[in-house]
Amino acid sequence: MLRWIRQQLGFDPPHQSDTRTVYVANRFPQHGHYIPQRFADNRIISSKYTVWNFVPKNLFEQFRRIANFYFLIIFLVQLMIDTPTSPITSGLPLFFVITVTAIKQGYEDWLRHKADNEVNGAPVFVVRSGSLVKTKSKNIRVGDIVRVAKDETFPADLVLLSSDRADGTCHITTASLDGETNLKTHFSVPETSVCQSVSQLEALQAVVECQQPEADLYRFVGRITVTQHGEEIVRPLGPENLLLRGARLKNTKEIFGVAVYTGMESKMALNYKCKSQKRSAVEKSMNTFLIIYLVILLFEAILSTILKYAWQAEEKWDEPFYNQKTEQEKNSSPILKFISDFLAFLVLYNFIIPISLYVTVEMQKFLGSFFIGWDLDLYHEESDQKAQVNTSDLNEELGQVEYVFTDKTGTLTENEMQFRECSINGIKYREVNGKLIPEGMTEDSPDSSTAHLMGEELLFLKAVSLCHTVQISYDQPDCLVGDPFSHANGFSSNNMEYYASSPDEKALVEATKRIGVAFTGTSGDIVEIKSFGKFEKYKLLHVLEFDPNRRRMSVILQTPSGGKVLFTKGAESAILPFATSGEIEKTRLHVDEFALKGLRTLVVACRHFTPEEYIDVDKRLTAARTALQQREEKLQEAFSYIERDLQLLGATGVEDKLQDKVQETIEALRLAGIKVWVLTGDKHETAISVSLSCGHFHRTMNILELLQQRSDNECAEQLRRLARRIKEDHVIQHGLVVDGASLSLALREHEKLFMEVCKNCSAVLCCRMAPLQKAKVVRLLKTSPEKPITLAIGDGANDVSMIQEAHVGIGIMGKEGRQAVRNSDYAIARFKFLAKLLLVHGHFYYIRIATLVQYFFYKNVCFITPQFLYQFFCLFSQQTLYDSVYLTLYNICFTSLPILVYSLFEQLVHPHVLQSKPALYRDISKNSLLSFGTFLYWTLLGFCHAFIFFFGSYILMGEDTTLMGNGQMFGNWTFGTLVFTVMVITVTLKLALETHFWTWMNHFVTWGSIAFYFIFSLFYGGIIWPFLHTQDMYFVFVQLLSSGSAWFAIIIIVITCLFPDAMKKVMYRHLKPTSTQKSQSLSASQTQALSCVESLCCYQHGQSGCSRLAHLLEQMTVQCKASVNNCHASSRSNRWGGRQQQETIIMSSDEPLPSLGVKSMDYSSDCYSP
């Protein structure tokens, strides 16, 4: 138990040596000297707190906030010395704030624990005690033999021992780790591949020695020692033997593997960043403002203390006849007395620091986050997924994003390839209903039938269906184990499923199958195709594997007639220069046309060998492959010798299907001033193609490349060349492409130069990126001198580090598991939803919380400044101006609800306008609403209003003027109550002036707060309360309100405060309007516009989620007439729940954005019908 606690606290690392020794099936040596190594368990932890550390860790994080720490100090001071106010006035609000925040953060972390428990509790099968035992994933130990079935994910990092295949191989996809959807083949060593039953595995005596865990997905060094008949056989282990956690088993019935890295030591988990507390720019601004107010507070306290002693220098004020000093006071130390007085003034003025600001902000963030989940525009009907908020602390950060870092596969694309067009022998074809139709013909044309394909066309289709590394899986589980060509004996080939080394290959092979030339399987070195109903068998002689330098792959086959032929396919730049026959120029033009359409292109060619030529080719390949020295160089020479004198057959155009509205979304982000970087693990050709098709790169953009740099000097020189090119050409937009290896060199020595090039590029594409490299790129931008706000979006486990590193992390609910979603701050179903999330929700959240913060400081300056001014009139005796109940309730009850409701529902501009004019997003960038100038304006306004409150009331009552009909005069409590009354009314009406979007709830809390103050004061001062020790306020408020002069003074003072502010707003709006104010006129005609709850949170009838809560809120904030039947009838055609309506919005000079799918609404329908 003690060791477990030490491990939880991080004091007891599980391992210390450089290597680890894993005994397969935990069959440890029997001699007494062996001390087993300690390894981590198999639990995945994405949560921030545990039961043990929640209280201390959460309290530490909360007391990092200046206001919380400050009020803790004030509370302790009030407990230790005699102060003018009760400790409860500071302690109660502090306790309330800490408790509410802890509950909110605890709830959010509980959701993470719940998600972790689902993963850790997943059922797995482990070989133990001679049988297959079902257990939970978290119970897997290092050394356990685990069984994984087809389409299951690996629960730990496993060394492959055996599979159901005779050769011990298996196929996996690592889409959730590196973003690649291609099928990868992994191998077991011969000595373990024969162990295909539980009894054989139980008898296996083997030891795996390997390196300690490291984050590199592509590196694994180890060896396995198998003991057979008393003899030890040692085999090397590499990445091809390791099955990574998070990868998925494909095309293989089952495998057995031994766990070598588990839990947080698996490579997937090591690529996660440590979960850290993210703090928004607004919160940092709040802390800065709090420090300024702390300085103001200290200044007021020190000044008051000095003035008190200056005043008491006169004997008549030092010890007046009515306040004689005690002996203890006379003998006390002057220094201690000065400190005591200073602390007393500090307590008296401490309310200038608004502790309730934090709790209001927490409540606003927590309640406001529900709007994202309720927004029907962020709901994906096909997958039945709504937007999800994992961390509400960063809502306003959505309105400050300057850089978006996005994954490609599964985020920008659907991860689906579709064959579109091809060029054969200089003629363009397209596929229509399983037929190849030449350009200019229709499906009904007499000469368009595929059955009439000529020799060149047929050879092209055969080349495409034979030149690949595709694997086949059949529905029948035993099909692959038995006769691979069993479909020829009655089994339908329609039931087979292709698994490809690249998504392009799969799309091409599926296309040729539809057209009539189907790849039907392999058996050893025999490859079979079915060409228009006729089976043909080819013998596979050699495979010339794809590599990024050649950018092509080839196969050498023996045809059924005995001839030898080479089929090759690759990028046009890698094939066309080596072609000597065929329609080369026509094909080149067609390839360019395909690329302009955004299609991924491949060129196909062939070469027929004479018997003598093939003997020479075979010798060269065999010699190169068996060379012990410089094998790679010799293979490249052999490949170059073979892949020449090619006959060009044609080219293919495959579309990587983009997600819906990706291009419009990227364009909207660009118009909003947000730079988009694509970070992908894919090949750079593929990545560039997708970047062009999705609008990330424009066709007119000058593409700069930083690729395959091998040394620091080479990298630096290339960066300087790129920088010069950018400076020389200021007109053309530039896009930068950089690969992972070059990026590592650039970041090592030339960070500043690299950043200079990147910042001058409109778009940046980083390919071949490892997960931690993605995080490094984000950190590089994040820590640059400008400190921009970054957002990362991705869908796989390979994106988790980037998501956690960025200021805001967004997970896509895609096809690659839920790791990204679990570790993100927000989760959405599609990339297109990012536009509304930032441009609308981000805009609203930011303006709401920015006004909330400024308003809180303003109303607290108004609150405490009269208290400071009052000391000049009471000999700095620390007499309080307000009653202690008013001191406590001012921020908690009298002025809290209006600003909370404002911060939930305010809309400066209608959501439609924000989406159609992304440039409005620039108005709030760089934290502009919380700039020092704006902060200074609100602070000075607070001081001005406070002076008017105090001196307005003083002019009325200061000269002992009688304001009662019976000649009676008011006292100091009445004076303080008059100031307090004017203050409550003024600060509430000031917020009303700032409100643009009025709902029923705004009216209720605004006028209700003022009414509540009057009612509470009447009850508090009109009744003798038995539990109060003293009741200074008895009948004070009633007496004040019985004076007509007091009422007149209240009205005059309130108007004096607010009239100049109202005039300033009118003048600025007409003489110097901002872009936002101009856009407000666009919605002027929309007087019946949707309420905030309606426009952001509509769920159509019958949907689950928060629809009933949204309906309840709508009843409270109703703006539209209840029309249940209309909503029901129209929800069938409009997922907003409103009838389709054509609505014309006249745009201003800014160029409008093409529609992002925002639907017009009939504002009269009730969207919340239960």
TrEMBL record:
<keyword id="KW-0067">ATP-binding</keyword>
<feature type="binding site">
    <location>
        <position position="409"/>
    </location>
    <ligand>
        <name>Mg(2+)</name>
    </ligand>
</feature>
<feature type="binding site">
    <location>
        <position position="799"/>
    </location>
    <ligand>
        <name>Mg(2+)</name>
    </ligand>
</feature>
<dbReference type="Pfam" id="PF16212">
    <property type="entry name" value="PhoLip_ATPase_C"/>
</dbReference>
<dbReference type="InterPro" id="IPR001757">
    <property type="entry name" value="P_typ_ATPase"/>
</dbReference>
<feature type="binding site">
    <location>
        <position position="768"/>
    </location>
    <ligand>
        <name>ATP</name>
    </ligand>
</feature>
<comment type="function">
    <text>Catalytic component of a P4-ATPase flippase complex which catalyzes the hydrolysis of ATP coupled to the transport of aminophospholipids, phosphatidylserines (PS) and phosphatidylethanolamines (PE), from the outer to the inner leaflet of intracellular membranes. May contribute to the maintenance of membrane lipid asymmetry in endosome compartment.</text>
</comment>
<feature type="active site" description="4-aspartylphosphate intermediate">
    <location>
        <position position="407"/>
    </location>
</feature>
<feature type="binding site">
    <location>
        <position position="795"/>
    </location>
    <ligand>
        <name>Mg(2+)</name>
    </ligand>
</feature>
<feature type="binding site">
    <location>
        <position position="798"/>
    </location>
    <ligand>
        <name>ATP</name>
    </ligand>
</feature>
<protein>
    <recommendedName>
        <fullName>Phospholipid-transporting ATPase</fullName>
        <ecNumber>7.6.2.1</ecNumber>
    </recommendedName>
</protein>
<feature type="transmembrane region" description="Helical">
    <location>
        <begin position="1034"/>
        <end position="1059"/>
    </location>
</feature>
<feature type="binding site">
    <location>
        <position position="600"/>
    </location>
    <ligand>
        <name>ATP</name>
    </ligand>
</feature>
<keyword id="KW-0472">Membrane</keyword>
<dbReference type="InterPro" id="IPR018303">
    <property type="entry name" value="ATPase_P-typ_P_site"/>
</dbReference>
<feature type="binding site">
    <location>
        <position position="546"/>
    </location>
    <ligand>
        <name>ATP</name>
    </ligand>
</feature>
<feature type="transmembrane region" description="Helical">
    <location>
        <begin position="288"/>
        <end position="311"/>
    </location>
</feature>
<keyword id="KW-1133">Transmembrane helix</keyword>
<feature type="binding site">
    <location>
        <position position="505"/>
    </location>
    <ligand>
        <name>ATP</name>
    </ligand>
</feature>
<dbReference type="InterPro" id="IPR032631">
    <property type="entry name" value="P-type_ATPase_N"/>
</dbReference>
<feature type="transmembrane region" description="Helical">
    <location>
        <begin position="969"/>
        <end position="992"/>
    </location>
</feature>
<dbReference type="InterPro" id="IPR008250">
    <property type="entry name" value="ATPase_P-typ_transduc_dom_A_sf"/>
</dbReference>
<keyword id="KW-0812">Transmembrane</keyword>
<feature type="binding site">
    <location>
        <position position="680"/>
    </location>
    <ligand>
        <name>ATP</name>
    </ligand>
</feature>
<feature type="binding site">
    <location>
        <position position="407"/>
    </location>
    <ligand>
        <name>Mg(2+)</name>
    </ligand>
</feature>
<feature type="transmembrane region" description="Helical">
    <location>
        <begin position="342"/>
        <end position="361"/>
    </location>
</feature>
<dbReference type="GO" id="GO:0045332">
    <property type="term" value="P:phospholipid translocation"/>
</dbReference>
<keyword id="KW-0547">Nucleotide-binding</keyword>
<feature type="binding site">
    <location>
        <position position="681"/>
    </location>
    <ligand>
        <name>ATP</name>
    </ligand>
</feature>
<dbReference type="InterPro" id="IPR023299">
    <property type="entry name" value="ATPase_P-typ_cyto_dom_N"/>
</dbReference>
<feature type="domain" description="P-type ATPase N-terminal">
    <location>
        <begin position="36"/>
        <end position="90"/>
    </location>
</feature>
<keyword id="KW-0967">Endosome</keyword>
<dbReference type="InterPro" id="IPR006539">
    <property type="entry name" value="P-type_ATPase_IV"/>
</dbReference>
<dbReference type="Pfam" id="PF13246">
    <property type="entry name" value="Cation_ATPase"/>
</dbReference>
<feature type="transmembrane region" description="Helical">
    <location>
        <begin position="87"/>
        <end position="103"/>
    </location>
</feature>
<comment type="subunit">
    <text>Component of a P4-ATPase flippase complex which consists of a catalytic alpha subunit ATP11B and an accessory beta subunit TMEM30A.</text>
</comment>
<dbReference type="InterPro" id="IPR044492">
    <property type="entry name" value="P_typ_ATPase_HD_dom"/>
</dbReference>
<dbReference type="Pfam" id="PF00122">
    <property type="entry name" value="E1-E2_ATPase"/>
</dbReference>
<keyword id="KW-0479">Metal-binding</keyword>
<feature type="transmembrane region" description="Helical">
    <location>
        <begin position="1004"/>
        <end position="1028"/>
    </location>
</feature>
<feature type="transmembrane region" description="Helical">
    <location>
        <begin position="935"/>
        <end position="957"/>
    </location>
</feature>
<dbReference type="GO" id="GO:0005886">
    <property type="term" value="C:plasma membrane"/>
</dbReference>
